[in-house]
UniProtKB/TrEMBL annotation:
Signal peptide: none annotated. This is Flavohemoprotein. It is an enzyme of class 1 (oxidoreductase). Belongs to the globin family. Two-domain flavohemoproteins subfamily. Keywords: Detoxification, Dioxygenase, FAD, Flavoprotein, Heme, Iron, Metal-binding, NAD, NADP, Oxidoreductase, Oxygen transport, Transport. It catalyses: 2 nitric oxide + NADPH + 2 O2 = 2 nitrate + NADP(+) + H(+); 2 nitric oxide + NADH + 2 O2 = 2 nitrate + NAD(+) + H(+). Transmembrane segments: none annotated. The keyword Glycoprotein does not apply. Pfam families: Globin, NAD_binding_1. Residues 1-138 form the Globin domain. It comes from Neptunomonas antarctica. One of its GO terms (molecular function) is nitric oxide dioxygenase NAD(P)H activity.
């Protein structure tokens, strides 16, 4: 990019920041009016809640603020590209998005502010970012093609196992009977789900909850309740629990995602809340399979005994692995036995983290957003370096 483009984009950051959500809301209005078929690609529940608009606004601002030092955005680019790959986003989608984004900027800011010069600079900047993402995604698509798997393909539900009062595992086997490509623990699957009761095709991502093998993939899905009164429950998760049974077929994309264990022999701390257990369990199972004997601390928080998923499996690992320290916290200890079901009443806290976790450990955490923010804050209070913190946000990426 030329220096004048960089200068103009950085100068407009305060204006974009002040109107970020208005711009992204207008963008999605333009996008879906022009391309209604894209409602089958985007998560319309996140559109209704405003999460997708907020996430896009943050991404735009992050890019603009760092446009003169794009190396700082490396991890974010990898995360966005991984998500695009699992949604099967193609190079031809980028001009559609860019055109409507520029229209939205001009509409919200007005032609006096969003002059031809400003729009031209943002067009160049967007094109540069698109080229970067297309290049990263091209590598992901080529790697998938090497395994003979392009886009979505049919998988059969081989088993359906209830793990708790709200989490059910689905064991998925390829309908074509071909061996499955390996995945990295922490990655996820995209499902393309259709139903006569759905207004659109729905795409959802679910973390793989077991180590990699050639025979099946396992996802473990929480049946999402309505987040508050007068709002709908989780459309796809409830459909999977109620309507998808053994023998049914689902369309599945090759695994993707960038929430991966670093290549290091440092101690590990795995911290999960609720269904956030799934990617971390995949990591723990993989480490166990490989005979990794480094110190591992497992911290898990859940509401009560009924919601505690994978309890028996983790108790077995705790008994078998001398290098594993397992601690489980319940909000409600009714009908639960300390030492068998749980270890602490209440929430994971800084004292617990300080007492149990090695200072030089790599920390991986996942769970509901309030849980994630609390854990992140506690780890920062303990002066854990940012480079040691790794996390996965379910849904549109949000800042902690």
């Amino acid at each position: 990019m030329n220096p004048s483009t960089i200068a103009i984009v950085k100068q407009t950051v305060p204006l974009i920041s002040a109107s970020g959500n208005d711009i992204t809301q207008q963008f999605y209005t333009f996008l879906f009016d022009e391309n209604p078929q894209l409602k089958h690609v985007f998560n319309m529940a996140n559109q209704a809640s405003g999460k997708q608009q907020s996430s896009l606004a943050s991404a735009i601002l992050g890019y603009a603020a760092n446009i003169d030092k794009l190396e700082a955005l490396g991890p974010v680019v990898e995360r966005i590209a991984a998500k695009h790959f699992t949604l099967d986003i193609q190079p031809e989608h980028y001009p559609i998005v860019g055109r409507n984004l520029l229209k939205a900027i001009r509409k919200v800011l007005g032609e006096d502010v969003a002059t031809d010069e400003v729009i031209s600079a943002w067009s160049d900047a967007y094109g540069h970012l698109a080229d970067i993402l297309i290049g990263v995604e091209k590598n992901l698509y080529e790697a998938a093609a090497d395994h003979g798997w392009v886009g979505f393909k049919a998988f059969n539900v081989d088993r359906k196992v209830e793990q708790s009062s709200e989490i059910t595992s689905f064991y998925l086997t390829p309908a074509d009977g071909k061996p499955l490509p390996e995945f990295h623990p922490g990655q996820y699957l995209s499902l393309e789900v259709k139903s006569d009761s759905f207004p659109y095709t729905e795409l959802r991502q679910y973390s793989l909850s077991d180590s990699s093998n050639k025979d099946y993939y396992r996802i473990s899905v929480k049946k999402e309740p309505a987040p508050q009164e007068n709002t709908p429950h989780g459309l796809v998760s409830n459909h999977l629990h109620a309507d998808i049974n053994v023998g049914d077929t689902l369309q599945v994309h090759v695994p993707g995602g960038d929430f991966l264990l670093k290549n290091t022999d440092k101690p590990l701390v795995l911290i999960s809340g609720g269904v956030g257990i799934t990617p971390l369990l995949s990591m723990l199972n993989d480490l166990t399979k490989r005979g990794d004997n480094r110190p591992i601390v497992w911290l898990h928080g859940t509401r009560n005994k009924a919601t505690h998923a994978f309890k028996e499996h983790l108790n077995m690992l705790d008994a078998d692995l001398p290098n594993l320290t397992k601690v489980v916290c319940y909000e409600d200890i009714s009908h639960a036995e300390m030492g068998v079901d749980y270890n602490y009443s209440g929430y994971i806290n800084t004292d617990m983290l300080s007492d149990l976790c090695p200072e030089d450990a790599e920390y991986y955490f996942c769970g509901p957003m309030p849980f994630m923010k609390a854990i992140y804050s506690q780890l920062k209070q303990l002066n854990i370096n940012e480079e040691q913190l790794h996390y996965e946000v379910f849904g549109p990426n949000e800042a902690l």
